């Protein structure tokens, strides 16, 4: 009997302590207090309850687990960087700091790599009228077919690739190094006109301004009963850019003493960018003619003018980058300004090869490239390259994010082939020149600068380690 009463008393005591534990647990969850709980009682009569003290002041660490009791990624020994108040493994089971949860919008880890496909458009290449169609009555004045009022060259869409990567140099992610490389596919454009010179055929010309008559003039490409031939214009351009920079954090919402992190809901950071920038813009413009007289001796002419420009920029770069992350979504705003030296180079060449089947004339100079302006010219100029960008991202799996962005880059002082063309020509200098000392010596070379911009959208993938 005494044994039964003892067992009943033990059961009642166990129930009372369990009820007290449940009430204390509910109160502690709200008030962050320290309370006592108990180990299971032994079945033996007279067993003494074992009391253990548990600190619930770190309730936040377990919020996600409370919301999702079947998930254990937010365990007692891991910070469980989650993308929302729910407990998930989007950013991995652990991370060293609260700042690492953001990690440039890429999740946990000290390094990141991003690759983007670029669908961009660039400023066209302006040129004077290069090819025209005219009438038999007035071949000197025609309607531009290439260049001039017909529009700029190289205005089409260009594909490209941009790669960015970097690593943090400290656990709290306040200082890092980042590199970037960008290129656009070489863009080219080709136009050709011509006719056979028979009666009623079209009249095609290459316009210029005659400095001897002070009147518009033209070189014939095809003319009924006089000349058969073709003339072509080919243009191409290439743009690249690269840089390396120091990423210096100025403000971040998520780093609190570099302590363990909790579930991510809304994180942001603001970084200062200091580094080096390289950029290159190479373009080429070639005008070529293949002509033959209709009447004997049917002399043939192979004529070309070529204008090539290169721009090489080297300088420092300053910028800012702001990033905001909300659950799986992120937004990045970027602004940079590079300043430095642009080495400009202009190459002008031309040649005429004529033969009547017996004699051959091979002389320097075409039409717009003559001995008066042929050569290579180089100089250095101070230049600026500002850049603006915005990117949205969605983290679709651990350490991976898809991105969609827009960027625009402007280069304020560049040389471009079409700007270096002088359409004023002294016909006496056309090869074979009748008098090389004839004044004025036109065409001539004069430095001409222009601006260049490129902009468009990007589709990318970002990965962090």
UniProtKB/TrEMBL annotation:
Identify the keywords attached in UniProt to this record, alphabetized.
Signal
- Signal sequence interval, chain numbering: 1-28
Kindly give the Pfam families that the UniProt entry links to this protein: BBP7 (PF07585)
Kindly provide the name given to this protein in its UniProt entry: Outer membrane protein transport protein (OMPP1/FadL/TodX)
């Amino acid at each position: 009997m005494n044994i039964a009463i003892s067992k009943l008393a033990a059961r009642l005591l166990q129930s009372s302590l369990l009820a007290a534990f449940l009430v204390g647990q509910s109160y502690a969850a709200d008030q962050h207090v320290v309370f006592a709980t108990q180990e299971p009682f032994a079945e033996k009569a007279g067993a003494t309850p074992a009391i253990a003290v548990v600190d619930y002041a770190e309730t936040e660490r377990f919020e996600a687990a409370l919301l999702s009791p079947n998930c254990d990624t937010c365990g007692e020994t891991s910070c469980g960087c989650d993308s929302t108040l729910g407990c998930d493994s989007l950013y991995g089971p652990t991370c060293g700091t609260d700042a690492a949860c953001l990690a440039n919008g890429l999740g946990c880890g000290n390094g990141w790599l991003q690759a983007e496909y670029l669908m961009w458009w660039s400023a066209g290449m302006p040129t004077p009228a290069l090819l025209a169609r005219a009438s038999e009555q007035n071949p000197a004045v025609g309607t531009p077919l290439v260049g001039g009022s017909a529009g700029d060259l190289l205005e089409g869409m260009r594909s490209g690739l941009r790669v960015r990567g970097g690593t943090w140099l400290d656990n709290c992610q306040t200082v890092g190094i980042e590199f970037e490389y960008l290129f656009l596919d070489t863009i080219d454009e080709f136009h050709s006109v011509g006719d056979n010179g028979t009666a009623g055929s079209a009249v095609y010309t290459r316009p210029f301004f005659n400095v001897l008559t002070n009147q518009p003039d033209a070189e014939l490409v095809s003319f009924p009963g006089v000349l058969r031939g073709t003339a072509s214009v080919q243009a191409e351009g290439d743009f690249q850019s690269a840089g390396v920079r120091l990423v210096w954090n100025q403000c971040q919402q998520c780093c609190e003493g570099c302590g363990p992190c909790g579930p991510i809901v809304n994180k942001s950071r603001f970084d200062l960018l200091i580094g080096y920038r390289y950029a290159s813009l190479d373009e080429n413009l070639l005008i070529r003619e293949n002509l033959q007289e209709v009447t004997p001796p049917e002399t043939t002419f192979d004529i070309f003018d070529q204008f090539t420009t290169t721009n090489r920029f080297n300088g420092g770069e300053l910028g800012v980058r702001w990033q905001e992350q909300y659950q799986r979504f992120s937004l990045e705003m970027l602004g940079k300004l590079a300043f430095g030296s642009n080495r400009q180079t202009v190459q002008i060449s031309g040649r005429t090869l004529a033969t009547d089947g017996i004699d051959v004339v091979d002389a320097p100079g075409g039409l717009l490239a003559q001995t008066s302006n042929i050569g290579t010219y180089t100089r250095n100029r101070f230049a600026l390259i500002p850049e603006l960008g915005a990117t949205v991202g969605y983290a679709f799996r651990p350490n991976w994010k898809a991105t969609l962005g827009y960027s625009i880059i402007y280069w304020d002082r560049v040389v471009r082939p079409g700007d270096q063309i002088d359409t004023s020509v002294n016909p006496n200098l056309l090869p074979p020149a009748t008098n090389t000392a004839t004044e004025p010596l036109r065409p001539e070379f004069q430095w001409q600068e222009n601006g260049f911009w490129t902009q468009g959208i990007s589709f990318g993938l970002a990965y962090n380690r």
